[in-house]
């Protein structure tokens, strides 16, 4: 039996990410976009097609696009233009962005709508993102201009892997689909807890900076393949409940 190609493997993983985002309520109508690179330079990438609901996406449904060919935004299988302008540029410009997940998931997006908000080091899950979050406070409408992707890529340059987009949503980038989805999951968990804690109106017991930095390092150097094990468990559930995701 032939070993699956990188593209085949990535298609299955990305389809699983769509299905689980829908299960967890991280999706929004037929909007929001996930993508994953399938070439060494990041130029060739997979993206969800226009009009597809996350809960029904299959591996074979995903569009294969090339960031080096801007005419991809035209034709019968053209991607959503806002997705193209963001994802094509991020894949092309950021080596760490092998997978890009952009959602308007409710709790994280609620925090994006607070004036001058920064993710508080309020619990262990939040500490996972210590020092790795960028903020875009200049919402100016939908990403329908070619320059928007380059601007956003600049915000994520360096060691940043999460972008809080003011009045909009979040972007997570990672070296693999498994890592990106695990980050997205824990980001929403941390955001949910912060929304709940803030809603009490009581003083917050913030974690000291040194301890938050330590916990962040511990998270990101955990002795097991935590993200991969989590994502494989999710795929195992799909194999039982919704095996068509991998078709």
Which terms summarize this structure?
8 helices; 13% strand; alpha+beta; globular; L-fuculose-1-phosphate Aldolase; seven-stranded mixed beta sheet; 247 residues
Model description:
Helix 2 (81-93) crosses helix 5 (146-155), helix 3 crosses helix 6 (177-199) and helix 6 (177-199) crosses helix 8 (226-241). It is built from eight helices and seven strands. Strand 1 and strand 2 form a beta hairpin. Strands 3-2-1-4-7-6-5 form a seven-stranded mixed beta sheet, with helices on both faces. It has one domain (6-246): Class II aldolase/adducin N-terminal domain (L-fuculose-1-phosphate Aldolase). The chain starts with 5 loop residues before the first helix and ends in a 6-residue tail after the last helix. With 247 residues, it is an alpha+beta fold.
> H/E order of the elements?
HEEEHEHHEHEEHHH
> Globular, elongated, flat, extended or rod-shaped: what is the shape?
globular
Alpha-carbon distance between the termini? 17 Å
Strand percentage, roughly?
5-15%
Q: Output the strand order for the largest sheet.
A: 3-2-1-4-7-6-5
Q: Which CATH architecture?
A: 3-Layer(aba) Sandwich
Assign the CATH superfamily.
Class II aldolase/adducin N-terminal domain
Q: Share of helix among residues?
A: 40-55%
Roughly what is the average pLDDT, rounded to an integer?
92
Q: Would you summarize the structure shown here?
A:
With 247 residues, the chain is α+β, with helices and mostly antiparallel strands.
SSE arrangement:
Elements: H1 6-23, E1 33-37, E2 44-47, E3 63-66, H2 81-93, E4 99-103, H3 106-112, H4 124-127, E5 133-136, H5 146-155, E6 162-165, E7 169-174, H6 177-199, H7 209-220, H8 226-241
Parallel strand pairs: 5-6
Antiparallel strand pairs: 1-2, 1-4, 2-3, 4-7, 6-7
Helix pairs in contact: 2-5, 3-6, 6-8
């Amino acid at each position: 039996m032939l070993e699956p190609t990188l593209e085949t493997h990535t298609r299955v993983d990305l389809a699983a990410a769509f299905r689980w985002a829908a299960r967890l309520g991280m999706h929004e109508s037929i909007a929001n976009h996930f993508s994953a690179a399938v070439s060494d330079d990041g130029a060739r990438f997979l993206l969800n097609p226009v009009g597809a609901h996350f809960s029904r996406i299959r591996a074979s449904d995903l569009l294969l696009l090339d960031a080096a060919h801007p005419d991809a935004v035209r034709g019968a299988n053209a991607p959503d233009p806002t997705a193209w302008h963001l994802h094509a540029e991020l894949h092309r410009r950021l080596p760490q962005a092998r997978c890009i997940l952009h959602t308007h998931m409710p709790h994280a997006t609620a925090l994006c709508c607070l004036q001058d908000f920064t993710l508080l080091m309020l619990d262990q899950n939040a500490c996972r993102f210590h020092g790795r979050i960028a903020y875009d406070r200049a919402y100016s409408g939908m990403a329908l201009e070619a320059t928007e992707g380059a601007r956003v890529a600049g915000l994520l340059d360096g060691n940043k892997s999460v972008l809080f987009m003011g009045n909009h949503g979040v972007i997570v980038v990672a070296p693999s689909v498994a890592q990106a989805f695990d980050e997205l999951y824990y980001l929403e968990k941390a955001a949910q807890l912060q929304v709940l804690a803030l809603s009490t109106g009581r003083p917050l017991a913030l974690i000291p900076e040194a301890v938050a930095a330590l916990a962040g390092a511990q998270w990101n150097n955990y002795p097991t393949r935590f993200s991969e094990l989590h994502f494989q468990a999710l795929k195992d559930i799909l194999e039982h409940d919704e095996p068509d995701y991998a078709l």
